[in-house]
């Protein structure tokens, strides 16, 4: 369970904690407890506040579910609280181990991103390319929850954490009492899927959005997706601010997908950037139906205006609404395989493709950023990062007088 400070929710003017947790589906309807807040770990008389349920995911087939609780102390001067423990009925009884309260950093006029939990091995070159493109288009920080990463993947995240661009937080999937430990798995809509895999992502996304609640805008992304502003906009913050001006009551903006199939050989072999090698396969019209008959947009949220969310849905706070981000202001590129074996995974495989100029206009900046990376610190060799090292060589040549 994470405990995140909120100055505005659920009780305005109070010291609020939003608790992001798992709940056992057998007992969640009867779960009651209190928060015990202290100014230092294990010292002083705790201030007791009852917890109340703010949201519960009610999927009936899940043994563990996303649950959000709130604890509020009406004294607005109580901002010195640093730790919280929990008890069933009274702070005078046995309590849990103390947890440090997370305080959101100031993000006024800034744009952040949340990603689903990462685990295992990610292609480090594509991960670096993603990070640099995100920085170029104006993402200020990326919150990453991780669980057991390969060394080469962790090295990339640690580097970007050292620059302040990534906030890196460990996480572990919850386990129902009496059940064996489990790891993260990729969520899939298949008859034999692990439904908790979807919930793993939703828990961390809600945790992330509350931790970034002082940012003006937070996008829900994955590392195979790029959110790119269209001209005349140069940053995603400019895109979001324009939409917020147009729709002042919006709590969230849906962003629609342009699928970039990566099956088959690249069509843009000249590019030194792997994300640009399939651009002539970019879908020419927005495609949200991946073949299972439901719309599947992603989301940019205004954190103080939402109460809960999943990867593709959002629950606005009272008096707020959700709107579509204007299509002309951005491209949202999802790089994915068109087919799985001989059977089509989604029905967008036969749609005509176009060359995407929105992202290609950033290629010079992208190459320049990649050329300045400390490859040795990232653990890259020329063999494993050939495109990046060639980009560095090309940038040095172009900068000669």
Automatic annotation (TrEMBL):
The lineage of its organism: Eukaryota, Metazoa, Spiralia, Lophotrochozoa, Mollusca. It is an enzyme of class 2 (transferase). Its main location: membrane. It is a single-pass membrane protein. One of its GO terms (cellular component) is membrane. This is Glycosyltransferase family 92 protein. One of its GO terms (molecular function) is glycosyltransferase activity. It is found in: Membrane. Pfam families: Glyco_transf_92 (PF01697). Its EC number is 2.4.1.-. Belongs to the glycosyltransferase 92 family. InterPro entries: Glyco_transf_92. Keywords: Glycosyltransferase, Membrane, Transferase, Transmembrane, Transmembrane helix. PANTHER family: GLYCOSYLTRANSFERASE FAMILY 92 PROTEIN.
């Amino acid at each position: 369970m994470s405990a995140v400070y909120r100055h505005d929710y659920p009780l305005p003017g109070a010291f609020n904690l939003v608790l992001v947790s798992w709940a056992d589906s057998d007992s969640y309807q009867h779960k009651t407890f209190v928060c015990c807040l202290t100014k230092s770990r294990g010292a002083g008389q705790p201030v007791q506040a009852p917890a109340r349920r703010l949201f519960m995911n009610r999927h009936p087939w899940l043994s563990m579910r996303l649950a959000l609780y709130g604890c509020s102390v009406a004294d607005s001067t109580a901002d010195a609280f640093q730790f919280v423990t929990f008890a069933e009925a009274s702070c005078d009884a046995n309590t849990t181990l103390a947890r440090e309260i997370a305080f959101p950093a100031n993000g006024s006029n800034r744009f952040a991103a949340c990603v689903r939990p990462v685990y295992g091995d990610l292609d480090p070159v594509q991960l670096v390319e993603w990070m640099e493109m995100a920085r170029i288009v104006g993402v200020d920080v990326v919150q990453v929850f991780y669980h057991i990463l390969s060394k080469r993947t962790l090295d990339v995240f640690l580097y970007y954490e050292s620059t302040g661009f990534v906030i890196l937080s460990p996480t572990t999937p919850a386990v129902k009492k009496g059940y064996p430990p489990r790891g993260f798995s990729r969520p899939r809509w298949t008859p034999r899927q692990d439904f908790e895999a979807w919930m793993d992502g939703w828990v961390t996304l809600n945790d992330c959005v509350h931790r970034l609640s002082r940012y003006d805008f937070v996008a829900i992304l994955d590392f195979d997706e790029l959110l790119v502003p269209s001209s005349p906009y140069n940053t995603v913050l400019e895109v979001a601010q324009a939409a917020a001006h147009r729709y002042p009551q919006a709590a969230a903006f849906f962003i629609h997908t342009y699928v970039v199939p990566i099956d088959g050989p690249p069509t843009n072999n000249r590019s030194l950037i792997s994300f640009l090698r399939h651009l002539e396969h970019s879908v020419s019209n927005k495609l949200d139906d991946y073949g299972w008959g439901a719309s599947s947009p992603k989301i940019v949220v205004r954190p103080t205006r939402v109460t809960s969310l999943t990867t593709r849905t959002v629950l606005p706070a009272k008096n707020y609404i959700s709107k579509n981000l204007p299509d002309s202001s951005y491209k949202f590129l999802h790089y994915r395989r068109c087919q799985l074996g001989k059977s089509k995974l989604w029905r967008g495989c036969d749609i005509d493709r176009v060359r995407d100029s929105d992202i290609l206009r950033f290629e010079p900046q992208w190459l320049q950023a990649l050329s300045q990376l400390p490859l040795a610190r990232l653990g890259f060799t020329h063999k494993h990062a050939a495109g990046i090292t060639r980009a560095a060589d090309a940038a040095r040549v172009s900068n000669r007088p």
